[in-house]
């Protein structure tokens, strides 16, 4: 095996009182994708910053045999680092091209080389038509793609990406992975990324599972998946260490019943911003007690549609009725709960103060408030932390608290805009558990938007949105079946050695690399055909199996069908 | 309702940077201004080049004395005077030429006052003082001569000046209070402007918009909270900084002053709405406030006497809330005016405040709430 | 230090990026030019105004010809004669409410005493709300009475056929060196350039670095091989230009709006002004390395620049009159030294070589502050 490109020994880091890393040992293999996974606050970003030489630390760290602590400046010509947050490394008032040129200039890229690579990257990411657009005017996914283009323009030996696909839509995500995979196979780039999406971790050659400042697991995702069907379950098991995920009950009741009647009717709704059609003629009806998900890329119109439902925006056309009332009616203000995309609590107020404030805003009676407050604190695991500033809580906990606050007045309709963005799998799973509970026990109608397609399966029904239009509405199961019906089964192959993806693509078989594995599909493709193909190229394999299609692929299928 | 006010107060109290700035402004800054900004020249350094060395020249020199001037430096050659003035080591020089006493008796003496023209306004005031001293001496000398010549029964007017309300013309008192008004104005704009914009910047405003709480009520609570905080700081500064630390004997009661400040806070709050609407971002509030504050300062009367402004600017002072606050504050705190005397200005300030709030809310509603 | 092509390219990249950002945020661009201009005009205008038109009233218990003559003397530029008050209470009320600044009280036996050749006494009641104005008014009143006395005595002597001339025994010749116009504004208005050029570059620069920290783009700098000084140099160039433009605007304002011409040559002023701007830009750099947000960067810069600039530069209080710590502050802050250059060029017609000591001192300040700025800026976090 090649010597590690980065080698960390006994690395620790303290921020004031908090110990972020507690003596970590870690090696990074060159020309591979290493995923650093773990819950919020585990120390993933800290670790990445140390590798990039932008954070001080204790311990020994070498980067291509250079001591990072002693000579942090020497390593920087070899690396690119992208911090966490959509487009946070971009200059918002600069155009796409100006951003790339800026990075090229400060990284000493010769002009000819820059122009060649720039064209290639812009084409691959689909940003070509937007060269002159200001970064501020790009959607989240486009910003992130541009951020990665900027990181790649210097052709770095090592690429460090902090949560590169949080908040990125499926299509952009797929493009991102294509570019990254391309760089690794063609140029031998080493990629280190942090992620809280387990489906993304599955695409890595190797993962490091960080928890509470320590490395819990280090190895191939395949090793972890031997026992569990996917990485998320394996991850779960490791974190819970034998314990069960705590379940909750709701001590209070609402008088709304799940009776299958229609709760919300959206008919012919359109909303324009200037010449931009954010929502384009949407018709939908949502039943009482249903958990209804809107899936789609950033800028698909999900948030705009929700804001129309909430009467924060006035639709240009069409009408929305909630519980048989026109949306925006003052009577609805007490029957609707809302948790906005941007964090909706006050970071400088304590847990208890936030809950009390919501109680006051919704004029909840004192004794009810006391009972519900206790419940919210229980489900947010915040017992004993009532006086902690909300701003200091980890994101997962904050989101549970925000959910609790938005249900404090027991609304009949609960609207959640991207509630789990950036939340780790454990927190996400228990968050969904809570939503399910609210729907089951209180009969709440829940509308959720998400760009994380893994979450589709938590919904009763989903609507796939793109460019302001709803392009499919059904249960996740039915949507998957439709995909299989048109595109055939999806197979997962785990070859013994590396293989050239061309052997599939030249036969018009769709192929996506997942770490050492590949997902392939084509209408009418059978397992025997694949085996024959593998044999003909003399490639051994550990397994070939059918798997349920990923929601991401389903999504892209519907998108392409619509076109 | 109390919950909402409490929320806003907590926001203010927990914004550590803002709080430190506010406390600094209301304490140390006022102290520095009061101690430092002394416009009235005292102990000004002066050099005297006395070529005459006579009784009369010494008499004149002896009249130059503290507190207005330092004990004059007696210089013995002309070059040194030039050097001292050129290097700004002395501000004024009095040159008494040879034959001064002789010429004095012939009624045709002359002296030269040299002023370093590059110096501050204090130098100009000092030279005016020196002129009065010389003229006074000149008059006294003449009276003396007339008396010697037995010419008596000459009429003459003596002046007795009384500086009312502030007998020693204590500039520290004025500068401290003046700075205090500036701080009230600045904080009175910056504080509400930042809390009016934060909710939008953090996105929590949508949460409120869909709740039964009306946005107007939320804004009202914000404004009330900001005013409570501002008035508490004013009260604190009045009691502990102005009265206790700086030892000013302020006239009027603290309640009367708080009443005036409350009325003033309507106007500053209105301006805060305007600032918040234009700035839209927290980081631009600072520069924008300065842009609005500077003209207010000019029109306030604290910097330039409003009567000395040209006609068109004097008319504009009608819309400067700081002018009214300044007038009211000085009248109450230094001159000790009773409330009935202040009533006309209080009503004008109230009307102005109402206009600013209406205009500010209109802008805020269009640019921030409706988000154009 | 070898300036490779790449170094220049990197600096240029930083600079052009910064310029684009500045130009594209219109409100910021506007404020960068408008705020210093407004502040300069307000301060300069305020400083150049004399105390005039002070509302003035009188109580005349005498109602004689001579008392009217005296009152007549107060109808000049300095006072705005509001007329007669009929009771001390009325006068007191108008002084208290700020409607009158001064009241002359002429006693009942005023003319009688004077005709008898005795001393009469008048009283001035002056509003002490604004002490500086009160003393100025007091000076005006004294001067008027002194000259009135001269006239009285002169008349009397002429009437009695005395031989004494009416002129003053002592003539005072006052010369304002370097400033023949006798107007304080000629010295003060140009001095204000030093104050405005202190604050604006510092605030803008501090904001520029704090902005990258707040938005997170600073990591691009942390994680690339660009050198600290290259980044900082590239970063401050646009602000140097903005401030240089501001300087030009201020010089033009002084010349045409305030009608104050320069005795020396502007070319002798420019080098000092540029170094002075550089100093203050470096000051902003230094502030931004200790603050994390844009709001705190603005606040700290204003606190550490504005107040010392006013207090310890010699603008309001002559430096020779400062004592102890204040005097040390005056020498430590660069403003006083730059003001000497301004005075030298505006009032004394000195050329660059006469002002070399001050200039070199400023260069030294810049070297120290910029080095400190580079040292304090770190390419990694805690």
What would you say this structure looks like, in words?
The complex is a heterotrimer of chains A (563), B (372) and C (382). Chain A is α/β, with parallel strands linked by helices and 563 residues long. Chain A folds into three domains: 235 residues, P-loop containing nucleotide triphosphate hydrolases (Rossmann fold, 3-Layer(aba) Sandwich), CATH 3.40.50; 213 residues, P-loop containing nucleotide triphosphate hydrolases (Rossmann fold); 84 residues, Alpha-Beta Plaits, CATH 3.30.70. Chain A has 18 helices and 24 strands. The two termini of chain A are 46 Å apart. In chain A, 50% of the residues are buried. The mean pLDDT of chain A is 87. Chain B has 14 helices and five strands. Chain B has two domains: 238 residues; 103 residues, abc type-2 transporter like fold, CATH 3.40.1710. In chain B, strands 2-1-3-4 form a four-stranded mixed β-sheet, with helices on both faces. Chain B is α/β, with parallel strands linked by helices and 372 residues long. In chain B, β1, α3 and β2 form a beta-alpha-beta unit. Chain B is 66% helix and 8% strand. Chain C has 382 residues and is an alpha/beta fold. Chain C has two domains: 224 residues, no CATH class; 106 residues, 3-Layer(aba) Sandwich (abc type-2 transporter like fold), CATH 3.40.1710.10. In chain C, 64% of the residues lie in helices and 9% in strands. Chain C has a four-stranded mixed β-sheet with strand order 2-1-3-4, with helices on both faces. In chain C, α1 crosses α9, α7 packs antiparallel against α11 and α10 packs parallel to α14. The radius of gyration of chain C is 29 Å and the shape is elongated.
Helices and strands, with pairings:
The complex is a heterotrimer of chains A (563), B (372) and C (382).
Chain A: E1 6-15, E2 18-28, E3 33-37, H1 44-51, E4 58-63, E5 66-67, H2 72-75, E6 79-82, H3 96-106, H4 111-125, H5 140-152, E7 158-162, H6 170-187, E8 190-195, H7 198-201, E9 206-211, E10 214-219, H8 221-225, H9 231-240, E11 262-273, E12 276-287, E13 291-295, H10 302-309, E14 317-322, E15 325-326, E16 336-339, H11 351-361, H12 366-379, H13 395-406, E17 413-417, H14 425-442, E18 445-450, E19 461-466, E20 469-474, H15 476-487, E21 490-495, H16 502-505, E22 510-514, E23 517-521, H17 527-536, E24 541-547, H18 551-562
Parallel strand pairs in A: 3-8, 3-9, 6-7, 7-8, 13-18, 13-19, 16-17, 17-18
Antiparallel strand pairs in A: 1-2, 1-4, 4-5, 9-10, 11-12, 11-14, 14-15, 19-20, 21-23, 21-24, 22-23
Helix pairs in contact in A: 3-5, 4-5, 5-6, 11-12, 12-13, 13-14, 15-18
Chain B: H1 2-14, H2 16-36, E1 46-50, H3 55-62, E2 73-75, H4 78-86, E3 92-96, H5 100-105, E4 109-116, H6 121-148, E5 156-164, H7 171-202, H8 205-209, H9 215-245, H10 254-279, H11 285-300, H12 311-316, H13 321-333, H14 339-369
Parallel strand pairs in B: 1-2, 1-3
Antiparallel strand pairs in B: 3-4
Chain C: H1 5-24, H2 26-48, E1 54-60, H3 65-72, E2 79-84, H4 88-96, E3 102-106, H5 110-115, E4 119-127, H6 131-159, E5 170-177, H7 185-215, H8 218-222, H9 228-257, H10 266-290, H11 294-311, H12 325-332, H13 335-346, H14 356-376
Parallel strand pairs in C: 1-2, 1-3
Antiparallel strand pairs in C: 3-4
Helix pairs in contact in C: 1-9, 2-7, 2-9, 7-9, 7-10, 7-11, 7-13, 9-10, 10-13, 10-14, 13-14
